[in-house]
Specification:
By secondary structure, the protein is of the alpha/beta class. It has one domain: TIM Barrel (Alpha-Beta Barrel), CATH 3.20.20. Helices cover about 40% and strands about 15% of the residues. The protein is built from 13 helices and 15 strands. The strands form four sheets. An eight-stranded parallel beta barrel has the order 1-2-5-7-8-9-12-13, surrounded by four helices. It has a two-stranded antiparallel ribbon with strand order 3-4. α4 packs parallel to α5. The radius of gyration is 20 Å and the shape is globular.
Length: about 400
């Protein structure tokens, strides 16, 4: 996601409502079943002669094995640390609880490194803020929700505003700071299973040659694996997570596509992309002599990603959704096609966002009959569609 305005309303910095707990026993069982299923599937395809079933299952659930065939994790982006400008509060347990209760099992945390990094010393980190992230991982483990950490703003690069002073792709010091950030997280979470925690290197590398990006990504992966050889790592695609990174296909990392095409549908009236230049969209979308529809998504947008998956690289759609000015009926029709294709491919996804202008709670759409849910406005139609995808 580009630009701070993607956040939408970040309602509340303390736990919401008095939701009924789903129960740790149920959630622990979900985590166990996910791990066991992934281990069994991978072990069946790569049995090791002379090794016991338990050893094979444990090895099959390693980060590199998961990266080759990701579980179909589905969930949302949580924005408490999306940008320092919008605050730096803790994550909210009821988000995890409600997601799990609705059948979702994944959160991506797009974060601004400035939230915990000393502006006077880029290698000094604020422990109080880092404990917020620790707590998010604890919420995830408690409720059976995988947590993927992402540097949405990294030393030397961001798609948000303002831009970074350094250039991550060219500046050795920026790369050193970037690697230090991931080394810190690798040390902090070493020993936690990759079925619970993954690292998503940097959000939407754009306007950069794939080979140049891949060189920076390889060094970060090496820094992580020097500390924690078994961590599951994901890389966003290049060109705003539009294109697979073929230069990383043999590195043992999964890759993330972002689903925002076509932009006149997903970003209608979004100020940060001058979305008011587009006419009110329909789905399918007619653009001159071209039709953007399910077939176009399948044959043009997602085809390279299917090819990447066929080469043994796990794929996940780390962001997708429509801004709240797109007509609701259009949003649902588009989501049904995008989500249906992703489901058909066997990939998971994370909607941008959970609470806010793209989400299922408090999205402030003018054409939705919201349902009251513990003090929040729930888009029930969107929720029920997502549960099917």
């Amino acid at each position: 996601m580009g630009g701070d305005l993607f956040a939408g309303p970040l309602a509340g910095r303390a736990p919401f409502g008095n939701g009924t707990p789903t129960g740790s026993k149920t959630m622990n069982r979900r985590t166990f079943l996910t791990t066991a299923a992934v281990g069994a599937a991978a072990a069946a395809g790569s049995a090791i002669p002379g090794r016991g079933g338990r050893a094979r299952a444990a090895e099959a659930a390693s980060g590199r094995d998961l990266a080759r065939r990701l579980p179909r994790w589905r969930g949302f982006n949580l924005l408490e640390k999306f940008t320092l400008r919008r605050g730096n509060g803790p994550f909210v347990e009821t988000d995890f609880e409600w997601m799990a209760g609705w059948g979702f099992d994944f959160v991506r945390l797009p974060m601004d490194y400035r939230c915990w990094t000393d502006p006077r010393d880029p290698y000094r980190y604020d422990e109080k803020t880092l404990k917020h992230i620790d707590q998010a991982l604890a919420f995830g483990a408690k409720h059976g929700v995988h947590v993927s950490l992402n540097l949405h703003r990294a030393p030397g690069y961001t798609v948000a505003r303002p831009p970074e002073e350094r250039n991550l792709w060219e500046d050795a010091e920026a790369q050193k700071q970037f690697n230090a950030q991931w080394t810190m997280f690798a040390k902090r979470y070493k020993g936690r299973p990759s079925t619970q925690v993954s690292f998503n290197l940097v959000n939407e590398p754009a306007k950069i040659e794939p080979a140049v990006y891949a060189n920076v990504a390889r060094r970060a992966v090496e820094a992580i694996r020097t500390v924690d050889a078994d961590r599951l790592i994901l890389s966003d695609g290049t060109r705003w997570a539009h294109d697979p990174v073929w230069d990383l296909a043999g590195l043992g990392v999964a890759q993330s596509v972002h689903g925002y095409q076509p932009m006149p549908v997903t970003h209608y009236k979004a100020s940060w992309v001058r979305g008011d230049r587009w006419a009110e969209p329909s789905w399918p979308l007619e653009q001159g002599k071209k039709t953007r529809d399910r077939a176009w998504l399948r044959e043009e947008y997602f085809a390279p990603w299917r090819k990447l998956a066929e080469e043994g690289v796990g794929v996940h759609m780390g962001e997708w959704g429509c801004y709240n000015k797109t007509p609701h009926r259009v949003v649902l029709a588009w989501m049904k096609d995008v989500g249906g294709l992703v489901k058909q491919a066997g990939w998971g996804w994370a909607l941008w966002n959970f609470r806010g202008s793209f989400g299922i709670l408090d999205s402030e759409r003018a054409d939705v009959a919201y349902e009251d849910f513990r003090g929040h406005k729930l888009d029930r139609k969107m929720l029920e569609l997502l549960r099917q995808l």
